[in-house]
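User: Predict structure, ligand LZCNNONV.
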Amino acid sequence: MGSVSKRRAIQTARARTCSNSTSFLLTMPGFLDDSNFGALSCKLITVCPNNVHLGKSLPTINANITLFDETTGILKAIISGNEITKWRTAAASVVATKYLTAKKGLRVLAILGAGAQGEIHAVAFQHFFNFEEANSKRLIRIWNHNTLKAEKLVSKLNQLYCGTVFKCFKSNEMCVKEADVIITATFASEPIVQLKWLKKGTHINAVGAGLTHYSELSESIYLASDVYIDYSEGAEAELTGLKELGVEFKGEIGTLVSGGVSPSSVNQITVFQSLGMAVEDCAMARMVYDLYKKQYRNV
Ligand SMILES: NC(=O)C1=CN([C@@H]2O[C@H](COP(=O)(O)OP(=O)(O)OC[C@H]3O[C@@H](n4cnc5c(N)ncnc54)[C@H](O)[C@@H]3O)[C@@H](O)[C@H]2O)C=CC1
Ligand SMILES: O=C(O)C1=NCCCC1
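Assistant: Predicted complex:
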């Protein structure tokens, strides 16, 4: 994120190729100039929300990353991108949350969405933060529009982490009530969070992206919040609806990390509008490739 804001990263706005009214292919080329994490890659990722109706365990998001030699342009590897997409997206939310809640006490985390992103965010946030509700041990709330799915995730996570209690909520309103941090990671095309449900100073990571990137939160939330983004070029291309609404972006998370933009006041509601960046995939692909070489090729 820092490299993006220092302009040591090239990631032109991605191309979206729709295959029907709900599904599309994103082409995400990127170049990251960094001796440790740098790489030239292109992620091809399909988003097919209707896969849930086709097969029990068919992911709705499927990705592959082609990794190239930066000098010769020769293909070095094709790396399965599903795990990478999960982890790097949650990592971006963790960084945004760390910097946008630095002066706030965090008690309540609400996750809306119990799919792949909901799960990985639950794992990452329980690892990096210490959410602790009154009269309880560490507690993380999870809601899904299909409650059974949330119940299954909650039961899986509670078995995995005995010390942290994950709790299923049947109402999205009750789930976000008094929340200090909210994560939305669904395919909702209508708002699932309303401004009047939020308390002062809440931070929201808006991760979900169906055909638009900003349909999970009500317009009034965007208008009342300081809205941060991951990269300006992507935001200009993909968040035109928010711009038309009159939403001004406060800055990139990378600029916040490097001190180039001053953080919001503690009572201000903040939104990290996560688009997902190609160079996050570059860095992860490079890391996976280097580990592979070390482990299996001894180089
Ligand atoms: N910002 C980023 O970098 C990334 C964003 N995404 C986006 O995050 C979202 C979640 O992705 P995954 O967890 O991989 O998908 P998933 O299919 O595993 O999970 C989606 C969840 O949303 C729920 N859902 C579906 N339709 C809904 C609706 N109309 N209203 C409320 N909930 C609904 C499903 O029940 C499911 O639990 C998607 O919108 C995806 O495009 C995914 C990867 C990266
Ligand atoms: O950056 C990504 O990867 C994605 N962004 C939005 C849609 C799903 C994948």
